[in-house]
Design goal:
By secondary structure, this protein is of the alpha+beta class. Helix content is about 40%, strand content about 20%. The protein contains 16 helices and 14 strands. The strands form four sheets. It has a five-stranded mixed β-sheet. Strands 9-12-10-11 form a four-stranded antiparallel β-sheet, covered by helices on one side. Helix 4 runs parallel beside helix 13. The longest helix is centred in the last third of the chain and has 22 residues. Magnesium ion binds next to strand 1.
Length: about 400
């Protein structure tokens, strides 16, 4: 297949942006505290089996990275400054950045707190070509947050996400519809989604180093190497991906999960991670203008057993407090029966309904619900005046390890 392969399905060319903020938590910390600028910074927990949420680019050259045990990161870079996460600051910036996206297209699919796909195909008549939109978005992000984000522009999600990562930080990589194969062929196979660390040496020992090397394999060789995943990988190395951008308001569920590099047994630590995930998910839910009827948690233990537990809420909600109450209860119930360490922890909300449902709730309830109003006002104030402007009283754990908004 040639470069034409990217459009072989005869769909009109889409123009997709993937935007991802650079070293997000660390960049916010460096922005808000000039003493941290230009220095290696680790954002994360230090107690027990604390984990690095993210490392500044200055710390990454020492080998520090997200999800690494904090103790390991500090060994690699003893001079690094460790900063506890401030979720409220990050959610404020997230809101600002997503508000910028929404100005250019309604088709915004948030992937996490600092990352989204945008389909700007329909926006080009108004705002100009996709690369121009990407430049404007980068400039507006910088202007309103004093932070940088990296953008990939491409005919589909897979390519856009690959592209945004290639020139980080402050990158802009544009892959035109006729440049797909030229862009992909030289890329190293470690950039191929789903090729785990374990398979890399196996592929490399056969002289397969780049996407191009894999693209040139015949069907039989692909089947031998990738088994029932062969077709999936054959499509990826050709840059074929026809998934559309699904705005969060149309999503069926919103979730967040994390796989630990090393299994975690410390319950307090796990609770802190779950709370952080709940904050992320609740922020995304409110951003989407949806209400959730159901909360779930997902736990994978070292034996690779995965359990999902869910709970229906007494009423649909977008409130952090109510979602957290359910997630925490589900986690307590799981913990009461299980003593083992955790490999993956996640949570999410489902049975979502949109704004219409929300209106009904407001009319049916005792006027405007105070807690909902509080969350919404808090989000708005933080977005406008910065994270320091407001802080919910609670902190989790001792010594303010994790601040809760
Ligand atoms: P990422 O976008 O994956 O990372 P990043 O923005 O820090 O750096 P990059 O320039 O490579 O994009 O994640 C966004 C934020 O989410 C990150 O700053 C912290 C948080 N996060 C965690 O808390 N734990 C994790 O394991 C990861 C990957 C991210
Ligand atoms: Mg990022």
């Amino acid at each position: 297949m040639s470069a034409r392969g990217a459009q072989a399905n005869d769909l009109p060319t889409r123009h997709i942006l993937h935007v991802d903020m650079d070293a997000f938590y660390a960049a916010v910390e460096q922005r808000d505290n000039p003493e941290l600028r230009g220095k290696p910074v680790l954002v994360g927990g230090t107690e027990g089996r604390g984990v690095v949420s993210t490392a500044s680019y200055e710390a990454r050259v020492f080998g520090c990275h997200s999800a690494q045990p904090m103790a390991v990161a500090q060994r690699l870079c003893p001079q690094a400054i460790v900063v506890p996460p401030r979720m409220s600051a990050y959610s404020a910036v997230s809101r600002q950045v997503f508000a910028i996206f929404e100005r250019f297209t309604p088709l915004v699919e948030g992937l996490s707190i600092d990352e989204a796909f945008l389909d700007v195909t329909g926006s080009m008549r108004l705002f100009g070509p996709a690369d121009e939109i990407a430049r404007r978005i980068k400039a507006e992000i910088r202007e309103s947050t004093q932070l940088t984000g990296s953008v990939g522009v491409a005919p589909n999600k897979f390519l856009a996400k690959l592209a945004s990562d290639l020139q980080k930080p402050d990158g802009l990589v544009i892959v035109g519809p006729n440049e797909v194969q030229a862009f992909l062929d030289p890329l190293p196979i470690r950039r191929l989604w789903g090729v785990g660390k374990a398979s890399l040496p196996k592929l490399e020992s056969r002289g397969l180093r780049t996407f191009g090397d894999i693209r040139r394999l015949d069907e039989r060789a692909m089947a031998v190497l990738f088994g029932n995943q062969a077709e999936h990988f054959a499509r990826l190395v050709r840059g074929l991906d026809d998934r559309s951008v699904v705005p969060e308001r149309d999503a069926k569920s919103i979730s967040h999960e994390h796989t630990f590099a090393q299994d975690v047994a410390d319950r307090e630590h796990l609770r802190a991670i779950l709370l952080e995930q709940t904050e992320h998910v609740a922020i995304r839910l409110r951003r989407a203008g949806s209400l959730a009827r159901c909360v779930f948690i997902k736990v994978r233990t070292p034996d690779f057993k995965t359990v999902t537990r869910q709970q229906h809420l007494p009423r649909p909600t977008d409130q952090t407090r109510e979602i957290w109450a359910a997630a925490a209860a589900l986690f307590e119930a799981w913990t009461a029966q299980h003593g083992e360490a955790v490999r993956l922890l996640g949570m999410g909300v489902s049975e979502l309904r949109g704004l219409a449902g929300r209106q009904m709730e407001l009319f049916a309830g005792e006027g405007c619900d105070k807690a909902a109003a509080l969350d919404e006002t808090a989000d708005a104030i933080r977005a406008r005046f910065g994270a320091g402007a407001l802080r919910r009283g609670a902190t989790l754990g001792k010594r303010g390890r994790r601040e809760v908004k």
